[in-house]
């Protein structure tokens, strides 16, 4: 086997390992849930009772505004609620 063939096989092996690792990472996305009352002003994920689109809240910790967090995290945040007021 000459050096050109060795290089080709080495590149093929690296490519196969890279593609294999990428496909495993895509399917491991965590479940998300809405967490009310924890967003900073203008950092909410969706419309609230007082505004019509994401990113337009005017106060920190608006109880009507939510952000999406990984499942199980909201209960660990002070002031976080899974229930819309």
UniProtKB/TrEMBL annotation:
The keyword Signal applies. Keywords: Signal. Residues 1-28 form the signal peptide. InterPro entries: DUF2282_membr. It holds the Pfam family DUF2282. This is Signal peptidase. The keyword Signal applies.
